[in-house]
Amino acid sequence: MPRGLAAMGSRGGDVRSMRWPGAAVLVGCFLCAGGVPVLGQGGVGAPPSLLVTPKWVHENLNALTVVDVRDAGLFQKGHVPGAVSVKWKTFSDPAAPHPGNLNPDRNKLAQLLGQLGISSDAQVVVYADPPNTWGEEGRMFWMLELLGHKRVAIMDGGWPLWVAEQRPVQAGAAAPRPARFVVDYKPERVVGWQEISRRLGDPTLVIVDSRTRAEYDGATPYGEARGGHIPGAVHLCWSELLGAGGKLLAKADLESLVRARGLTPARESALYCTGGIRSGFVYFALRWIGFPRERNYDGSFWEWAARPELPVQR
After folding, report:
1. Closest CA to 237 of 197, 272, 275
2. Same-domain check for residues 41 and 153
3. C-alpha–C-alpha distance, residues 283 and 206, integer Å
4. Would residue 43 be called left, alpha or beta, if left means φ above 0 and alpha means ψ between -120 and 50 degrees?
5. From edge to edge, which strands make up the β-sheet containing 234-235?
6. CATH no. for residue 26?
7. Ramachandran region, residue 148 (left: φ > 0; alpha: ψ -120 to 50; beta: rest)
8. Are residues 18 and 156 in the same domain?
């Protein structure tokens, strides 16, 4: 049972008959004695892929750890029952000048994840609100894979699709039960400015800028020290990966799109944006279509542009 659902049961249940546009909140048929949902009893099977539907999440809710990475205020108003709430900045390096850099203290990261009720062996499903956010679900997916978690998926369409399909909604704060997270760090999932600068012009490495075209061309809307992009980077805005309603493009369309930008399974990709969030979503999308050599640059352009010794192209 996921930590959040266990907490729901201890309070008698927080899934209420509330008015939410397009959403049906089920009470009598969704709750059993004690308020614990009865969906997906008997444990969860392997998800159909790294990308799962709201229907699959609903059917297996009783055996999932669901992570909502939207703003806390939105979470309080309504969320997937039993979900826990966290923002990507929770895991940022407190000593870094910009929040993109992941906290290098792996013990601290494990502690934070454990406090959220995320264990190393849980089936985790992450969701946000595409395309109205920044791809935070991808950042969370990337971070968990970097730390060695092997059972992470993203809910396609996120919160808007959950509501549109009239699935149950819970309001209020989360009440996660502590869990144990053991880090199994995977350095091949991350890349830093040192390696990128050393490999500029390397034909085996594709540098991918996942910001908007205006940012790629020189706009600095988020306080970047300089405008432009990393020399030789190809442009692939993260929102290009989304179709109608914020759902990810079909695999064939997605693969066609990224191959047109020079990405292939045989080449390494160094992915960046402003702070490693939008690029985290691109990382996820490439992992979903089976590309094995993707690496996210968490410091991204905030860090790159702030180092005057590193070149910038416009």
Report:
1. 272
2. yes
3. 13
4. left
5. 234-235, 205-209, 268-272, 294-296
6. 3.40.250.10
7. left
8. yes
102 lies in the same domain as 137: yes
pLDDT at residue 47, as a whole number: 76
Give the C-alpha distances (Å, rounded to integers) separating 218 from 148, 208, 213, 222: 36, 15, 9, 12
Does residue 172 lie within any of the structural domains? Answer: no
Scanning the structure block, which residue is given the tokens 């826990």?
Answer: 84
Q: Provide the token pair at 50.
A: 């790294």
Q: Name every residue whose Cβ is closer than 8 Å to that of residue 181 and which is 6 or more positions away in sequence.
A: 109, 110, 111, 113, 114, 118, 119, 120, 147
Q: What is the pLDDT of residue 122?
A: 95
3 state DSSP class of 211: coil
Tokens of 302: 């905030």
Using the predicted structure, report yes or no on whether residue 110 has a pLDDT greater than 70.
yes
CA distance 305 to 97: 12
Give the domain range for residue 153. 3-164
Residue type, 228: G
Model pLDDT, residue 45: 62
> What is residue 28's predicted lDDT score, i.e. its pLDDT?
26
Kindly state whether residue 312 falls inside one of the protein's structural domains. no
Mean pLDDT of 226-243: 98
- Residue 181, domain member (yes or no): no
Which letter does DSSP use for residue 116 in this model?
T
Q: Are residues 143 and 241 in the same domain?
A: no
pLDDT, tens digit (0-9, with 9 covering 90-100), for 9-63: 433 334 443 434 444 333 222 322 222 232 333 356 667 789 999 999 999 999 9
The percentage of the chain sitting over the pLDDT mark of 90, rounded to a whole number, equals 82
Pair 53, 98 in one domain: yes
- Examine the pLDDT at 108 and tell me if it is beyond 50: yes
Q: Is the pLDDT of residue 231 over 80?
A: yes
Weakest mean pLDDT among 14-23, 72-81, 129-138: 14-23
DSSP state of 90: G
Block residue for tokens 């939410």: 20
